[in-house]
Amino acid sequence: MASTTNNPSQLSETAAPCESPLEIPEIGGMVASYLRGIDLARCLRVSRSWRDIFLSHRWRIIRIELGSTAPVGPSDEALYKHRHFLQDLKIYGYLTEFMQYPNLRKLDVALFVNEYMYEQGIRENVQWDLINNYPLLDHLIVSFVNVGPRLCRAISEHSRIRHLRLYATGTKEEDQTIVWEACRNLESLELDRYHFKNGSTSVPKDAVFDRMRKLNFRNIEFVSASEQAELVFHCPRLEILEWRLPDSITAQIMISHPTRKDRWPQVEESSRNPRYLQDIELASVLEGIGNCIGKITDLKLSHTTFGLEACKALGSHFSTLVKLRLDYMSATSSALRDVLCSCPKLESLQAHTILAKDVAEGGPWVCEQLRELITCFRVKQTEQDLQPLVFERLSKMVRLTTLVMGNSFDDGSGDGVLEFRLDCGLGQLANLRELESIGFHRGIKTEQRQRLEMKDVEWMIENWKKLRTVYGKLSRDPEVETQLKGVLKSNGISTSSW
User: Fold this and answer.
1) Angle of helix 48-58 versus helix 25-33 axis, rounded to 10
2) What pLDDT sits at residue 13?
3) Greatest CA separation for the chain
4) Which pLDDT band holds residue 58 (cuts at 50, 70, 90)?
5) Cβ atoms 354, 333 nearer than 8 A
6) Alpha-carbon gap, residue 471 to 445, rounded angstroms
7) Strands, DSSP E only, in 116-249?
C-alpha cells in the first residue's frame, strides 16, 4: 500500500489555506454587500489584509454632490487614484464634463440648476459625448435635464448602454425623433414624469425596438392613455410593462407569449373621478394589453376598480395568470372569487375583501399552486355556518407558505371575519404543512378581531411545524392575547401587531 506524507513543505505546494474566510472573494463580497460606505472605510483601517479585501468594495459605488458650497464626496485626486474600482457613480449637481472611469457600469446624473440657468440653456452645455469614455457603461439615469441632440447622440453611439431612465425631464418637439432613434438598442426604458412638449409621443410608425424587454411609464403628462399604449406596438419582444397614468392606474404585467399586435382600444380617463379608472375602463385596458402583447402572467393594479367587467376581460388570461396584486382599490368580491375558481397556475393573490357568501355561491377553487394568499374573508353574524366551507376551500391549498387574513387597516365594514378556531373549522387546515407565516386583521372594531383560545394556538403549533411568524391580533381580550403570544414565542414563533 502506498504511503502518505505529512511533509508541510509538500502540502504547501498543493494547498494554501486562507488566513481568513474574508479572503475568499465570494465571502468577502457577501460581507461587503451588508456594509455602508462609512463601515467599509473603517474596515480599510483595521489591517493591511483587510484593506486589500475591502478597498475595491469601498470604491465600487460613489455619490458626489456638487453645488455652490463645497462639494460632498471624495476629491478628484482620490477618484482618479481609485478610478478602476468604480462601477456605480451618482452625480447630483451642475457639471460640464466627466472623469474617465474604465470599469463604470452605471451612471446616475441629476442636474440641479436655478431657473435663470435653465432659461439660459446652460443644461445643454454638458459634454454628453464623454460617456463614450466608459466602455462598459450599461445603465444610464438622467434627471432634471432637457433631453436633446447631444445626449441622444451619445446614447446612440455608445456600444453598451442597454438600460435608460429619464426622470423629471422633457423633450422639445423638434427633438423627439432623435430621442426614439436613441432607444433602438435599449433593453429597458423608464420614463418617469417625462414631458412631451407637443402632447404626443411622436413615435415614427415604422420604428421597431427589437431589443426592448421592459417599458416603464410613470406619470407622463399631456399624453393620452391610448397614445402611451401605442408605444407597445413598437416592441415585439416586450416582456414587462409597468404603466402608471397620472392619479389613476398602476399596472405591472409580465407576458408569456407576446404574439398578437391588434389595435389598442381607445382608453378615456374617468372625468367623474380622476383618481380611479372605472371597471369598464379597466376592462378595456386589460383587453388591449392581451391583444397587443399576449398572455399575462403577473398583474399588479392600483387606484382602479376591479369589477365583473374587468374580471371578464382578464378571463382570457386565467390559464396563464401566476400573480395578481390589487392595491388601494375597489374590488368586487365575486370577481375575486372567480379568480380563485378559474386560475390553475395562480401562486400569489393579494386583494382586500372576499365575502363568505360569495365563496359559498362559487365552485371549488382550482388554484392548488397557491403559495401566498393575502385577503380578508368577511363573515356576517348571520352567516357563521359558512365558516367551515371557507376553511374547506383553504384546506386544498396545501402549498401555502403565507396566509394573511386581512389588511392592516379598517375598511369601515361592520362584518365579522373568518375566525381561526377549532369550533369554526380550523381543524380542516391540518394539511397546510408548508405554512410559514400567518396574519390576522388587527381590526379596530371588536367584531373584526379574532377570538383564539389556548387550544387553537396549541393546535397550530402541533400541526404547522414550519410556522415561524404570526401577525395581528389573536384575541379580543388583552390578557388572553398576552398569554397566546407568550406560548408562541416559547415555541420559536415570532409575533407582531403589524
Assistant:
1) 60
2) 47
3) 91
4) confident
5) yes
6) 17
7) 139-143, 163-167, 170-171, 188-192, 195-196, 214-218, 240-244
pLDDT band at 187 (very low <50, low <70, confident <90, very high): very high
The three grid cell numbers given for residue 309, joined into one nine-digit string:
367587467
Grid coordinates representing 491? 415555541
pLDDT tens-digit profile of 119-146? 444 445 677 888 888 899 999 999 888 8
Q: Are strands 494-496 and 469-471 parallel, antiparallel or unpaired?
A: parallel
Buried b (16+ CB within 10 A) or exposed e, 31-50: bbeeeeeeebeebbeeeeeb
| Nine-digit cell string for 489 | 414565542
- Tens of pLDDT, residue by residue over 365-389, are 999 999 999 999 999 888 999 999 9
How far apart, in whole angstroms, are the C-alpha atoms of residue 179 and residue 190? 13
Measured CA to CA, the distance from residue 422 to residue 5 in angstroms comes to 67
Burial class (CB in 10 A: 0-12, 13-18, 19+), 77: exposed
User: What pLDDT score was predicted for residue 338?
Assistant: 94
Burial of 265 (0-12, 13-18, 19+ CB in 10 A): middle
Which stretch of DSSP H or E encloses residue 480? helix 478-490
Sign for the pseudo-dihedral over CA of 420, 421, 425, 428: positive
Q: What is d(CA 26, CA 374) in angstroms, rounded to the nearest whole number?
A: 36
Q: What is the pLDDT of residue 250?
A: 55
For 100, the 3-state DSSP assignment is coil
What number of CA atoms fall less than 13 Å from residue 442's CA on the CB side?
12
**Band (218; pLDDT cuts 50, 70, 90):** confident
H helices present in 59-184, as ranges: 76-81, 115-119, 149-157, 176-182
Q: Which 3 state secondary structure label does DSSP give 192?
A: strand
CATH fold of the domain at 60-223: 3.80.10
Q: Is 228 exposed, middle or buried (0-12, 13-18, 19+ CB in 10 A)?
A: buried
Measure the CA–CA gap between 422 and 419, rounded to whole angstroms: 9
Alpha-carbon span 209 to 194, nearest angstrom: 19
Is residue 411 within 8 A of residue 391, CB to CB? The reply is no
Domain segments of the chain as ranges: 19-58, 60-223
State how far the alpha carbon of 205 is from the alpha carbons of 202, 209, 221, 234, in Å: 9, 12, 21, 8
- Is the Cβ–Cβ distance between 442 and 472 less than 8 Å? yes
The cell for 241 is: 410593462
Instruction: Decide if 464 contacts 431 (C-beta within 8 A).
Output: no
